[in-house]
Amino acid sequence: MTTEVKVPALGESITEGTLGQWLKKPGDAVKADEAIASLETDKVAIEVNAPVAGVIGTLTVNEGDTVEVGAVIATIEEGGAAAAASAPASKAEAAPAAAAQQAPAEPAKTSDALSPSAKRAAGETGVDPSTVAGTGKDGRVTRVDIEGAASSKPAASAPAAAAPAPASSGGRKEERVKMTRLRQTVAKRLKEAQNTAAMLTTFNDVDMSAVIEARAKYKDLFEKKHGVRLGFMGFFVKAAVQALRDIPAVNGSIEGDEIVYHDYVDVSVAVSAPNGLVVPVIRDAQDLSVAGIEKTIGDFGKRAKDGTLKMEEMKGGTFTISNGGVFGSLMSTPIINPPQSAVLGLHRIEDRPVVVDGQVVVRPMMYLALSYDHRLIDGREAVTFLVALKNAIEDPTRLLIDL
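and the corresponding structure tokens:
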């Protein structure tokens, strides 16, 4: 019996996606609910699961094709799993030559399991994917895994990357890779934000001494009690929530000729995923403790890496925090995430000389950047927001007594 595999519902208002990667090929045995393909949508990559157990029959679309919800992308032959399972036994009984032919196929299997971004990263870095331990779903190797292996690769292996050099044709190569649907949507939304909002960025800096000290003092107890590491983002989200209550315009948005003020704070946080940054939302952040915030962010980060974030977790948001500091950024002018009116950019912490009580001292400092829509938020409000945030981070006791 043949069963059709169809594109599942992708969320409200989303009618199509891009077939990002086939995880199975014709002839492969699959279990019911096992992932057979990865779909990229405007917001996130999701997996298509087998509706029944059997053997993959026909793949009706190629990687990179656009597919609509409900479209048939493959077929599964039910009852074929037993035949597929017995296939290795017959191969084992075959002549040694057949076994020898099978050996070189293993690297290809590793390559077939790579996403397009991981394949590209492997080509750029010269890392052999078969030597990398995968951290993705079902142990698949991700772009992050490839880049991590490249950064830790000994210098002695560098000559391997230079192998193509003997080609002395003098020609220069270039590679054209189709933008993923997620990247296309990000590009479109960012450009729309620049075209629509009257964007302006205001800067400040913050002394991180108090937060670093508190984190060092309580991180072990915190992790033991809450089962999650104590990071800096919990402090910043908590401080931002407090500042947003004082300056509600920064938490607002423009709809037509109306200004919408929210009595709740849904904080969008940018986290890394194999195909780029995704921005899940911490709902009702005003009701969460630092531990609750850290747990939510930790869960988002893990599921972003696994590709299991849900559509509804990416929607909404009244304010965004983006931490470029984890990548080493010193300063930036982040772009608003429409229809929000402001985004806070965090940057790397570095020791700098500052004047305290007339004395030059070295302190761990971070630059803060608030990009905002000047149509709604005045410069005075933006500066006041940043000062309130700075005060809370430099004196975390303010977070406890609501100052």
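(Above: one complete record from the training split.) The chain has a mean pLDDT of 81.
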